[in-house]
Amino acid sequence: MAAIGAYGKQGWIRRTMRMPGGDAGSAVSRSGRFPVWRWAILLIAGIYFLLPLYAAIRFAGLKAFGSVFTQAGFGAALWTSIQISAMTWIITMALMVPTTIYVHLRMPKMRRLLESVTILPIVIPPIVLTVGVLQVFPTQLKATMWLLGFEYVILAMPFAYRSIDAGLRSIDLKTLTEASGNLGANWLQTMWRVILPNLGTSLLSATVLIVALCLGEFTMASLNLVTTFPVWIVEFDQLNANISVAASILALVVTWLFLMLIVLLGSRQARRTGAGEVTLFTVTANTKTIGES
Question: Which domains does the chain possess?
């Protein structure tokens, strides 16, 4: 009987492994070879992204890359983009972090309205948004990087809000706040020492998105007559197309390296504190609140 039972069990396992939808068959397919269709998708994506880069490098020539740094206006335009990125990040975080936390704690019914409001900058075309801002802001701020920074804050709101909101959903915010208050901490201490350490991954994700947005945006900067790095590349294309293409490739590489540096620092911090890890494309939510045993 034992042999019959063992034979029946083995036969059930074989049938399960042969079944397309069986769990054992799925496990074997996952742990075995890589599906052909995934290789095909990776190959198509690689050709789609790498072939234009290869063509651009062939067109520009290797000598053009060394000449980019000596062109007039290169350093000023790059420094302007970096300043605008820093200003946008500071203002966006100062506005969105306290607002999102307050809505989660005090007005949870307003979250749906806040989601609808923050999605508007994506729906409204940048040209319409820029023209509207130019009609409202003082004349002294027009054609300055300060006005462009405020416009980028509006444009970055959807990305910053959703990153912070995802982080707040992954922690027990109410319990942490009440426990901190019971221990004698005021609101600023609770924000700085309790809530923000648990939002490290979300804040880093928002930083990656804001920096990428500011370093690559062209339409608003051009309409505001501010020579950022993307605007300089387009304007310089009329003088020397080879150097302009080389500058575009360098901008892509520098932006990628900068974002990878942010991700690397954030991943180290996440491993040290036990928070979730962040990549350029996915965010692993916190499975454990910092300070929890």
Answer: 62-273 (1.10.3720.10)
